[in-house]
C-alpha cells in the first residue's frame, strides 16, 4: 500500500501545516510573522474542529459537506479556548509555546485516530477531500429538498459561524495599541506570590523579590525606595537608577532588617519615574510583625 493510500490527503495537509507553523514559531524571525499569521489562523480557527470531526465521522456518508464545514468551524471556536483555560491552571500558563505544543499534540493525535478509523472502512467509503465533490456537496445541501425553514436555519448557522471566525481573525491580526503602564510586583523569595516574610525578630533580615516591567511603549528610568512605617530603609545606590527599554524587565532580591519591634508594621515599596521623583508612580506594601529579639 502506497503512502498516498496510507495517509489521506487532507490529514497530510493538516499535519504539514501544523509542523510548518511550529517551525515558524521556533525560528522567531521577523520575516516569518506574515507566514505565521497566514498559516496560524486556519490552524487555530478551523483545524482543531476539523480533525475532531474527521475522527468522529470518518465516512463520507456520515455527514453532509455543509454539516462537516459548520461543525469544524464551530468546534474549533470551542476547543481552542478550552485548551487556554486548562493551561491557565498549569505551571506553564497561557503563553505561545505551551499553547502551540498542546494544540500540535492534540491535532497530531486526532490525525492518527482519523487515519486508523478511515482505514477500517471499506474501500471508497472513507471521507476524502475532492474540491469538485465538496462544492457539489455544498450546493446539494443548500438546494436539497429540505423545508425552507431548515435551509434558512442552516444558512443562518453557517453565516454566524463564519462571521464569528472572521471577527476573531480580524482581532488576532489587527495591530492595536495596548495600554501604557508599568508592572510593579513583589514575590516571595521562592519566586511566587506566596511565602512573604510576615513575621521577623528585631534585627533579623527578611527578603523579597521586587520586579519592574516596562509597558510604557518607550524606554523609562525608575527609582526604587523602601520604607518601614514611613521611614526610609537603606538601599543600594543601583536601585536609584533603573533603566529599562520598552518591554524590559528588572528583578532583584531586596533584603531589609527591621531594628524595632512592633505589630502590623507597614513595609512600603515605592517606585518613582524620572519625570517625577516627588510622587510615587507605583506603590506596594506588606504588613509584618516584628517581635523582640
Describe it:
By secondary structure, the protein is an alpha+beta fold. It has 2 domains: 3-173, no CATH class; 181-291, Immunoglobulin-like (Sandwich). 45% of the residues lie in helices and 22% in strands. The protein contains 8 helices and 9 strands. It has helices at 3-6, 9-27, 33-45, 47-56, 65-88, 96-119, 131-143, 148-173; strands spanning 181-187, 199-201, 206-215, 220-228, 231-232, 242-244, 249-256, 262-273, 282-291. Strands 2, 4, 5, 6, 8 and 9 form a 6-stranded mixed beta sheet that branches. The protein has a 3-stranded antiparallel beta sheet with strand order 1-3-7, with no helix packed on it. α2 packs antiparallel against α6 and α4 (47-56) packs parallel to α6 (96-119). It starts with a helix and ends with a strand.
Give the count of helical stretches: 8
What sort of overall outline do the alpha carbons produce when their principal axes are compared? elongated
The mean pLDDT is 82
Helix content: 40-55%
- Please mark out the parts with pLDDT under 50 across 5 or more consecutive residues, or reply none: none
Distance between the first and last residues' Cα: 82 Å
> What portion of the residues fall into strands of 2 or more residues?
15-25%
Q: Mind describing the biggest β-sheet?
A: 6 strands, mixed
Q: Could you tell me the number of beta strands? A: 9
* Secondary-structure element pattern, one letter each: HHHHHHHHEEEEEEEEE
Tell me the number of structural domains.
2
Rg result: 29 Å
SS-based structural class? Answer: alpha+beta
Amino acid at each position: 500500500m502506497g503512502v498516498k493510500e496510507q495517509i489521506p490527503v487532507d490529514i497530510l495537509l493538516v499535519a504539514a501545516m501544523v509542523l510548518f507553523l511550529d517551525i515558524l514559531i521556533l525560528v522567531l524571525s521577523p520575516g516569518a510573522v506574515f507566514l505565521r499569521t497566514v498559516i496560524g489562523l486556519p490552524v487555530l480557527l478551523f483545524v482543531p474542529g476539523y480533525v475532531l470531526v474527521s475522527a468522529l465521522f470518518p465516512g463520507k456518508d456520515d455527514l453532509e459537506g455543509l454539516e462537516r464545514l459548520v461543525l469544524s468551524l464551530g468546534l474549533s471556536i470551542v476547543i481552542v479556548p478550552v485548551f487556554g483555560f486548562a493551561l491557565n491552571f498549569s505551571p506553564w500558563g497561557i503563553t505561545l509555546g505551551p499553547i502551540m505544543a498542546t494544540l500540535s499534540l492534540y491535532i497530531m493525535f486526532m490525525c492518527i485516530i482519523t487515519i486508523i478509523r478511515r482505514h477500517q472502512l471499506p474501500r471508497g467509503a472513507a471521507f476524502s477531500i475532492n474540491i469538485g465533490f465538496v462544492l457539489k456537496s455544498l450546493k446539494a445541501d443548500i438546494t436539497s429538498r429540505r423545508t425552507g425553514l431548515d435551509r434558512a436555519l442552516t444558512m443562518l448557522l453557517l453565516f454566524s459561524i463564519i462571521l464569528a471566525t472572521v471577527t476573531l481573525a480580524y482581532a488576532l491580526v489587527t495591530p492595536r495599541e495596548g495600554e501604557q503602564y508599568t508592572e510593579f510586583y513583589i514575590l516571595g523569595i521562592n519566586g511566587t506570590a506566596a511565602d512573604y516574610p510576615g513575621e521577623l525578630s528585631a534585627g533579623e533580615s527578611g527578603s523579597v523579590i521586587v520586579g519592574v516591567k516596562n509597558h510604557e511603549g518607550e524606554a523609562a528610568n525608575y527609582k526604587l525606595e523602601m520604607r518601614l512605617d514611613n521611614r526610609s530603609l537603606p538601599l543600594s545606590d543601583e536601585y536609584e537608577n533603573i533603566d529599562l527599554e520598552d518591554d524590559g524587565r528588572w528583578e532583584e532580591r531586596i533584603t531589609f532588617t527591621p531594628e524595632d519591634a512592633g505589630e502590623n508594621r507597614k513595609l512600603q515599596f515605592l517606585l518613582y519615574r524620572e519625570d517625577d521623583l516627588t510622587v510615587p508612580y507605583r506603590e506596594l506594601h506588606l504588613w509584618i510583625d516584628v517581635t523582640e529579639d
